[in-house]
Each structure stands twice: as structure tokens, then as C-alpha cells.
Amino acid sequence: MVLPSRLRRQLGIEQDQILILELQEEGGIRLLSQKQLAQGGRGLLRAMAPTTEKDRALSEELIAERRSAAARE
Predict the structure, then answer these.
(1) What is the distance between the alpha carbons of residues 63 and 23, in angstroms, rounded to a whole number?
(2) How far apart are CA 33 and CA 4, in angstroms?
(3) Is the pTM of this model over 0.90?
(4) What's the pLDDT tens digit per position in 4-51?
(5) Do 15 and 8 touch, CB atoms closer than 8 A?
(6) With contact defined as beta carbons under 8 Å apart, do 66 and 73 qualify?
(7) 13 near 19, Cβ under 8 Å?
(8) 3-state secondary structure string across 34-65
(9) What is the DSSP letter of 13?
(10) Are 30 and 24 a contacting pair, CB within 8 Å?
(11) Cβ distance 18 to 34 under 8 Å?
(12) Is it the case that residue 54 has pLDDT exceeding 70?
């Protein structure tokens, strides 16, 4: 899709920039830059992060085991 240069300047879009076209439920469309899309996805996996010292200790233990196994090889 080609956007006129005047429109690109108004929207702060650079030439050859990749945009994502999103269809809205109400029938409209929305253009997003890759940066905007990435920012919208930030924090999606935050709920899966370790929340207790016990969880963190298990992950550190696994890392130590893997390093030990790698050293033996």
C-alpha cells in the first residue's frame, strides 16, 4: 500500500517503514508501526514470571545443574 508523502509526514511515518493493518470489529482499520505493536505486547508474559523466592531459587538451581552438566561434557 502506498501512502502519500503528505500523509506520512503528518503521521510521522518514514518511507519504506513496515506497517501493520489491523481490522477493527466495528469495520474500521488501524495502521500500527512495528514499534507500536511491540509496545502493545509488553508485559503479556509478566504473569508467568517467578513471584516468590522459592520460584527464583528453583530456576537458579536448574541453571547451576545445566552449567555443571555442560562442564562435565
Answers:
(1) 43
(2) 16
(3) no
(4) 999 989 988 888 888 999 899 999 998 888 888 888 777 777 676 666
(5) yes
(6) no
(7) yes
(8) HHHHHHHHCCCCHHHCCCCHHHHHHHHHHHHH
(9) P
(10) yes
(11) yes
(12) no
